[in-house]
Amino acid sequence: MTMEHARAAVAGKPKVVFVLGATATGKSKLAIALAKRFNGEVINADKIQVHAGAPIITNKVTEEEQDGVRTTSSACCRPTPSSPRRTSGARRSPPSPAWSPPAASRSSPAAPTRDGAAFRARHDVLFIWADAAPELLEWYVALRVDDMVARGLVAEARAAFDAAGAGRGDDVDYSRGLRRAIGLPEMHAYLVAEREGAGAGEADELAALLARAVREIKDNTCRLARVQVGKIRRLSRLDGWDVRRVDVTPVFARMADGTACHHQTWKTLVWEPCEEMVMHFLETPAAPTAFSRRVHHGDRGRETGRAVEAVEAA
């Protein structure tokens, strides 16, 4: 953040920028780029990524991708085999990574609590919503899952499976902690069959189980994306919430066409508008708003607080 940006922030409420979006829309890339450009830090509030382990399955950014930008709330919880268990056939709702706030000033606190109205009363907030056409997002989700498999998703799932005691025949609870992550429950049937030992005649069955697991991972990730978009759309319609939609569809379209210029498309159609948007936001002094008074009027304050809770909820 430049001195001009710092003076603007001091003149009013502290400024915080959130990057929202369904899974696979490029929130982390955009958040890191904004934080680097404006000398901020990334506060990652993905509820699954706070757990240590399974970096491929949970899509954690690598040190190289962080590009020297400070990030917080990463890999702080370790799963244990003693977690409460239920039968392995029971299913869980897909986790919903809700907030990825980047480019916050160094004095800004971590992600807002469930009292979203109180947070808004104390901070000037900008929401950037990275969105894409469903059909192209689903195409990219499938591509990303295939890449995750190539990078070691199966080995990570196997390690989590063994750590949970499933290799000893124990039931596994897929409703809590890291094991809620899409990519672990779907692999269960394959890993059980693998542990039981497949002879030469059963290799085809194992391959079919793995293929089915990968299809389920893709389907559940797409289902998660639809749920997330619905939550963000509801938030964007609330009065007093400055949500700016940025269409990343052209980037996926260039990738689907095999066009090598999709990086330039991202720079022109995503990065440059967002950079300008955040620059203007940081340079504009935050004036007292009706929102801070609304906190004390009950209904609307509770409504906005519930909106934050809804987006954060799994």
Brief account:
GO terms for molecular function: AMP dimethylallyltransferase activity; ATP binding; ATP/ADP dimethylallyltransferase activity; tRNA dimethylallyltransferase activity. Helix content is 48%, strand content 8%.
Topology, please?
Blueprint: H1 3-11, E1 15-21, H2 27-37, E2 42-43, H3 63-66, E3 71-72, H4 116-122, E4 124-131, H5 134-151, H6 153-163, H7 188-196, H8 203-236, E5 243-247, H9 249-256, H10 262-283, H11 290-294, H12 299-312
Parallel strand pairs: 1-4, 2-3, 4-5
Structure description:
This protein starts with a helix and ends with a helix. The chain has twelve helices and five strands. It has helices spanning 3-11, 27-37, 63-66, 116-122, 134-151, 153-163, 188-196, 203-236, 249-256, 262-283, 290-294, 299-312, and strands spanning 15-21, 42-43, 71-72, 124-131, 243-247. α3 (63-66) links the parallel β2 (42-43) and β3. Helices cover 48% and strands 8% of the residues. The strands form two sheets. A three-stranded parallel β-sheet has the order 1-4-5, with helices on both faces. The chain has a two-stranded parallel ribbon with strand order 2-3. The protein has a single domain, classed as P-loop containing nucleotide triphosphate hydrolases (Rossmann fold, 3-Layer(aba) Sandwich). It is mainly alpha-helical and 314 residues long. Residues 6-10, 80-113 and 289-311 have low confidence and may be disordered. It is globular. α5 (134-151) crosses α8 (203-236) and α8 (203-236) runs antiparallel to α12 (299-312). One of its GO terms (biological process) is cytokinin biosynthetic process. This is adenylate dimethylallyltransferase (ADP/ATP-dependent). Its EC number is 2.5.1.112. Involved in cytokinin biosynthesis. Catalyzes the transfer of an isopentenyl group from dimethylallyl diphosphate (DMAPP) to ATP and ADP. Residues 61-115 are annotated as: Disordered.
